[in-house]
Amino acid sequence: MNTSLRTLALAAAAGLAMASAGAATVTIPQSALNASPGVYTPGGYYTDALGANIVTTGGGSAANVGQADGRNDDGFMQLNLGFDFSFFGTTYNSLYINNNGNVSFGGGISAYVPSGPTGANAPVISPYFGDVDTRGENSGVVHYKLSANELVVTWDNVGRFAGRDDLLNSFQLVLRSDAFAVPVGEGKIGFFYEQMLWEVTDTSQVAAVGFGDGQGNAEVLQGSTQAGLFRALNNKYIWFDANLDVVDPNDVPEPTTLALALAALGAAGFSARRRKS
């Protein structure tokens, strides 16, 4: 969604919200999703370097706090980023990696029924909010890879509640610092999906994707909290800029345009040097 359309959508949503619940929701169209296999990695992730598994520091009744292998249900791990990250107008330098398919700021989220980012009680980035349960024998776990200006969190082949590992989901979040020099065609936040096979669990029937500010304002992917979302995400990816606008990976300057622009800059510089001399 381009900036002008998003601004209009926000204004319209805000107007409706003022007349009703006092919160605004913007919908991200599914048409903004791009095919992921072969773009960055053969399978569709941004990177196959997954890093260490999380070790939970809190969560629900089966969080398994401190368990070295990271297997848990409804747990979360607090993480110091070592860099600044601005989100909904607030700058953070730490976050919580939540087992149930999201990261949050200011507090961990152990909620397992996806009410969408609008229902989260803390600012949240949700590549796939569902009732993830990694206790099953065939389930993978949640991984994170932290560098100087980037965090990658991967829910790799994860199962669902209650300990079910017959169907597995694989998805990845890329989060970049305020100082990160973002390449053309990429963004500050990325959602990457490989095999996505489930949304129905023993506690819920749907999942949700998007962003929330913890007070009911949100951007959500079309189809969130509706049946069939996982199918739309299978083997897809999407980038967002610092304003949470979708980045079109194909919207890059044509080589001819770049050459003309560089030529114009060179001519302008030569002219300026001549005038100075």
TrEMBL record:
Pfam families: NIDO (PF06119), PEP-CTERM (PF07589). Residues 93-146, 151-228 form the NIDO domain. Coiled coil: none annotated. The keyword Signal applies. Keywords: Disulfide bond, Signal. It comes from the Bacteria. Residues 1-23 form the signal peptide. The keyword Disulfide bond applies. InterPro entries: Epithelial_Barrier/Signaling, Ice-binding_C, NIDO_dom. Residues 251-275 form the Ice-binding protein C-terminal domain. This is PEP-CTERM sorting domain-containing protein. It comes from Rubrivivax benzoatilyticus. The lineage of its organism: Bacteria, Pseudomonadati, Pseudomonadota, Betaproteobacteria, Burkholderiales.
